[in-house]
Amino acid sequence: MTKEERLIKEKERALELKKFEMEYRSLGHDFIAGVDEVGRGPLAGPVVTACVVLNPDYEGLGIDDSKKLSEKKRESLYDEILDNAICYGFGLCDNNLIDEINILEATKQAMKQAVDSAGRMLQEKLGQNINLLLVDAVTIPGVDTKQISLIKGDSNSISIAAASILAKVKRDRMMIELDDVYPGYGFASNKGYGTKAHYEGLKKLGPTPIHRKSFLGNLN
Fold first, then answer.
1. Residue whose C-alpha is closest to residue 60's, from 162, 152, 133, 130
2. pTM score over 0.90
């Protein structure tokens, strides 16, 4: 594929991802936020969420579901998304809360944190409120803003896809730092997921303070 063909493909994909935003913007929703999470499945570390309202003029070339992108691509898009965001926010629930209330409820709490943070930024910058949330497959409790739950939202909405990239990069960076604190589990490469190296580390060293006890089963 030539560079020109790749650019055409990226433009087509970006336009496809904007369909929900364009539709709801035409109905009067000026500040549409995408919300997504990363880290529901790992054995260790937090679940991290992001909420972002993108500038409608942002072309968004290369944005897609974070799982479909290389680490290098996600890193390059991370700063670009922040630069082209009207507002954004992050949320986090650690392994202890995940064990206490379960991963789904912890994810919802972290999503609310991200929405609240982005909302405060929008108020401070423009004196406006987010008026629509596009959320990846979850309904967030305790949020007054109208929200729409989209199945596979990170593959169908540019705002949710952008949020997935922000959350993924944020969490990956945290796990790389935690690899220095808790060596022997391969956190820098596996990001807390259950790889062979991770299980070998658990058998040899036992769980760390950042492991999710409710995820470890017989290893606990």
1. 162
2. yes
